[in-house]
Amino acid sequence: xxxxxxxxxxxxxxxxxxxxxxxxxxxxxxxxxxxxxxxxxxxxxxxxxxxxxxxxxxxxxxxxxxxxxxxxxxxxxxxxxxxxxxxxxxxxxxxxxxxxxxxxxxxxxxxxxxxxxxxxxxxxxxxxxxxxxxxxxxxxxxxxxxxxxxxxxxxxxxxxxxxxxxxxxxxxxxxxxxxxxxxxxxxxxxxxxxxxxxxxxxxxxxxxxxxxxxxxxxxxxxxxxxxxxxxxxxxxxxxxxxxxxxxxxxxxxxxxxxxxxxxxxxxxxxxxxxxxxxxxxxxxxxxxxxxxxxxxxxxxxxxxxxxxxxxxxxxxxxxxxxxxxxxxxxxxxxxxxxxxxxxxxxxxxxxxxxxxxxxxxxxxxxxxxxxxxxxxxxxxxxxxxxxxxxxxxxxxxxxxxxxxxxxxxxxxxxxxxxxxxxxxxxxxxxxxxxxxxxxxxxxx
Length: 444
Hints:
Strands 1-2-3-5-4 form a 5-stranded mixed sheet, with helices on one face. The chain is of the alpha+beta class. The longest helix has 98 residues, at 165-262. It folds into 3 domains: 10-202, no CATH class; 220-296; 311-438, Heat Shock Protein 90 (2-Layer Sandwich), CATH 3.30.565. The protein contains 11 helices and 5 strands; from the N terminus they run αααααααααβαββαββ.
């Protein structure tokens, strides 16, 4: 008969199951031993009882000799019962540390009257450790004072009784090992725990501070977005006013001329019908345009109506900039500013020049500004506007302090007419704004 070598054998399964069982038991024991709660107290009480019982069986008793003895030698089971009572006090040391210690002192005094045992000393050690670790500040101060007084008084009494300094030293070391060492150990553990808790609290505070900083940054970003939105809305309202002044005036002219033509005797019925249609379309366009403008300006603040700036009023912009302390040099070799340009083109270039000069005054105070106009004569033609300032130009703007809509509105004006717009630092360390707007032929 053949067997599959890959199949698990019964011995192998037993060994694997046994190993898993022992690992489970060891893991459970490790959890019980290291548990810092009532489970750990139960393990400590049981362990102390077993170890103390072994010490009693070995015979580590009568560590103090009385002459004469106050009581006779106790029965062995009396010592075991006294040890069990002391171990039972270990179970309540976490919730009532001083009460458990008082019971432990009573158990120790009874044990000392029988000559004492190392098993009860182990119980007293654990109860002293628990009291120094879990009792309040006032209880700990009283406990330290009492323990130091017992050590000093006991050492002096032993030295005086034997008239030998060695008994003083031996007694001080023994009482210090029994009373002071577990309390010192507990204080050390408590200080480390308090430091760890303080570090965790600091980490939590740092996390909360970081969260508040993130919320503040988000609020600043929302505020900046709201400011940009408000600026864009205001600029759109201004564009609506410009649109009204430019297109509405042309449509009004068409309506007026067509009305005059209709008031004269017609040469032919077809011409009169055409003129009537033209007037009707012009009036309808004017009505729709006014409705659109009112919609765009519904949320915009009202201000006095004024004629929109044209490129022929570039001199006023330059004079205002110079009056504010900006050194502006104008270059217009082809006389573009004085040429008759389409109204939309002239207004867009006027606003772009105005915004560029304002930015130069804000971001590069004291720097010279050069404004250049040029006109392309090939093809349909275009007007180029270049505004640049020298070194010491615009720094990087803080998004939380600046709305950042100046470049956006200039780009919208140029690209809205089919042009291009660019802005950025030049090779000399300054800042350049370059806009190119194609010429749109106006209708006669």
